[in-house]
Design goal:
The complex is a heterodimer of chains A (303) and B (217). Helices cover 49% and strands 13% of the residues of chain A. In chain A, helix 8 packs antiparallel against helix 9. Chain B is an alpha+beta fold and 217 residues long. The chains are: A alpha+beta (303), B alpha+beta (217). At the A-B interface, helix 8 of A face helix 3 of B. Chain B: It is found in: Nucleus. Chain B: Component of the Mediator complex.
Chain lengths: 303, 217
């Protein structure tokens, strides 16, 4: 479309030039004057008529081509007004507009060509692009296995962590089949029940040192809350921490980091807040521990 | 049962005991504490009455509303027996005269001490503002502050100190003498009774000292 337009324009310009040439010739001839030396008036008249006819022809041609032209900026009729801005030299907006219009038209057209070949490729599988299926298998992520750890493996890891962390003592029970329940006690400060699925922490309940971890029927009590406000707050932070440390690909590290963080609660009652430097705030000691450096903070003093 | 600190609160001469209690209660309510009923701690004393013994021994029988089914018996050398409430019946039997024989124990008259008043809760803190009554006379104020989640006094002492000082001022600069000796052991209800005994004895001494003064007034 645009090409047709350009061609027509070029043609029109050519015709204009031809018309000007023929008109100039006629006027040149007229200006020079006809000097009839041989008295051959008829020949002169013929010649004059011929050049007038040429002018006429050129004019007709130009008119024909000119009719075929249409305003360039059909899509942005308002931009036409830019062209009549007298300050054109200062703001070459209109010419740039035309230029970009042409560019975008061209890009659109090329995109039209490209979509054909690309469409064929889109149906190919990605592994084909990489090359061989073997390579593709290597690149695929290993599915997380943290939840599928065997009981022996879990036992080993828990025993090792128990030895590694002097402040924490842990014991494993399996009241619900293969999933382990860790009973963690932290000095004479607090106790916790950690339910594991494989090695992934699924649930944490924090209670006071004097509170019973077993319900009346002798089972480990996973669900009831602590009597004390301070341990309920610790429970909330611990639940948040399980999410923070959650990592199904490296569940052992996640468990270790969680327990390391949890260990910091051995100073639950004795450590002052890192921000305000005080112990007491609204009935509680600093119950929140920073997840990275385990600094104690009050709920309202969190960084 | 957590760590408990009991402190006597001074009553200025120009104020009555009730006024001071009201001020403290108002202060606690401003801090955000809410009332959770009444409490009492009482103590009766018995004297051993054995002819053979060279020296008379005292036995203090305590009740604490926080442990309503228990009675505590403390000897004057600090030995404490924690028992069921039925033990009191046994003591009463021992204090009875039987078939002309003298009883083994004898209740000391006018020696009953009681501290009772309003119980408040603020978060995990339990605050008890008690008026001490010796032989039905008001003698002073004892304030008991308990931090229930913790069992090791040394762990939570700084926290309790900050809290106690927030409404009582500098009275709680040091932990009570009885706790001081066992900062790192697990706190038991017995230790609360020992603290009360110490304060009750002080109030009794003050009473007996002031008794001769009353006729001169």
């Amino acid at each position: 479309m645009a090409d047709n337009q350009t061609d027509a324009l070029i043609e029109a310009i050519n015709f204009t030039q031809m018309l000007r040439a023929s008109v100039t010739k006629v006027f040149d001839n007229l200006a020079d004057g006809f000097q009839d030396s041989q008295g051959n008036e008829k020949a002169l008249l013929n010649e004059f008529q011929k050049s007038l006819l040429a002018v006429n022809n050129d004019f007709n041609e130009l008119e024909r081509v000119g009719n075929g032209l249409y305003p360039l900026s059909v899509n942005s009729p308002n931009s036409v007004h830019l062209s009549i801005d007298p300050a054109t030299d200062k703001t070459p907006l209109y010419s740039q507009l035309i230029q970009s219009y042409k560019w975008s038209n061209k890009a659109h057209e090329l995109a039209g060509y490209v979509i054909g070949p690309l469409d064929q490729n889109a149906k190919l599988k990605r592994s084909m692009l990489i090359g061989s299926t073997l390579q593709a298998k290597k690149l695929r992520r290993v599915p997380p296995s943290g939840h599928a750890a065997t009981t022996v493996y879990v036992d080993n890891i828990v025993t090792r962590l128990d030895q590694k962390m002097p402040d924490i003592s842990m014991s494993i029970t399996r009241p619900l089949g293969s999933s382990a329940i860790l009973q963690v006690s932290l000095g004479k400060i607090l106790k916790a029940v950690v339910a594991l699925r494989g090695l992934i922490i699924e649930w944490v309940t924090v209670k006071g040192y004097q509170e019973d971890l077993y319900s009346e029927d002798g089972k480990v009590d996973l669900w009831s809350q602590s009597r004390y406000q301070v341990f309920r707050k610790v429970n909330d932070s611990a639940t948040a921490a399980t999410l923070h440390f959650y990592s199904p690909h490296n569940a052992e590290l996640a468990l270790q980091s969680f327990l390391h963080w949890f260990q910091s609660y051995k100073t639950l009652f004795s450590a002052p807040c890192s921000k305000c430097g005080k112990h007491y705030h609204q009935g509680s000691p600093p119950t929140w521990r920073d997840l990275r450096n385990t600094d104690p903070y009050h709920d309202v003093c969190k960084p | 049962m957590g760590v408990v600190c009991v402190y006597p609160y001074p009553v200025p001469e120009e104020k009555s005991g009730q006024q001071v209690v009201d001020t403290i209660q108002k202060q606690l309510e401003l801090l955000g504490a809410h009332k959770s009923g009444n409490f009492f701690v009482d103590c009766e004393s018995y004297q051993s009455n054995l002819q053979t013994a060279t020296q008379q021994r005292l036995l203090h029988l305590f009740h604490n509303s926080e442990q309503p089914a228990t009675c505590f018996s403390v000897l004057d050398n600090g030995m404490c027996l924690v028992s069921d409430l039925l033990f009191e019946v046994l003591i009463l039997k021992l204090a009875e005269k039987k078939s002309g024989k003298d009883s083994y124990y004898q209740q000391r008259k006018g020696f009953k001490v009681e501290s009772k008043g309003q119980r408040y809760e603020l978060g995990d803190f339990i605050i008890k503002v008690g008026s001490v009554i010796v032989a039905s006379n008001f003698r002073g104020i004892l304030i008991e502050v308990e931090y229930s989640p913790c069992v090791i006094p040394s762990e939570c002492w700084n926290l309790m100190k900050e809290f106690i000082q927030s409404f009582m001022g500098n009275i709680a600069e040091n932990p009570p003498a009885h706790i001081k000796s066992k900062m790192d052991t697990v706190y038991t209800p017995e230790d609360t009774i020992q603290q009360y005994l110490e304060h009750f004895n002080n109030f009794r001494k003050a009473t007996s000292a002031s008794v001769p003064a009353t006729p001169n007034r």
